[in-house]
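Risk register update: the risk of archive-format incompatibility is retired. Evidence:
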Amino acid sequence: MSLPPPTRPAPARPTDLDVVRDSYDRVADSYVHLLATTGMGDIRTTPWLRAAVDTFADSVHGLGPVLDVGCGPGTVTAYLQERGLDVSGVDLSPRMIEHAARLHPGCRFAVRSATELDLEPASLGGILGWWSLFNLPRDVLAGVLATFHDALVPGGHAIIATHVGDDDVARTEAYGGVPVTWTTYQWRPERLTELLDDVGLRVVADLRLPAEGQQGPLVVLVARRDT
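Archived output:
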């Protein structure tokens, strides 16, 4: 008789979660306006990022549902649905989810924190943390990545896109000068690869972009759950 897999503790709740949620609620309207007028955040405008998402979509097609964690106004969620995936999105910010539901009424969205996903084990073919995990404190991110691993079926993939650097940057305004209160945690790709490996996710692709001229993530890692 096979034994059930060990149960990991849930990720810690960030102490600033409510403050970060309020900040994204304030900035949501400006973010959506910039998305519509400048293409900021739209992977269709950045060929290498679009190619990474396309490859991820091909890799998880047919493996099961896909979850976009930190989906914002649903741009990547909708793109993946167009690619034929059974995908849904969650975000910490209720205002972001309001925009997502309005802009993409054919997609499924819910308000949920990355640290409170409550996912069934081995229930997803793919999971995304696309430019959405950089507000998680360093001691919290590992627990979230462990949640990603446990929710994937063997052979499933996670894709992580984030900022590159060594610093913790305190932000007081964003997206057109809207007041916010959050910390952007920058990561060295090598350290992020170690975190993924530690939770059982093996990096199979590593895309790095130069900082000059970029308005999005500078590193994209795709990792596979082997067993």
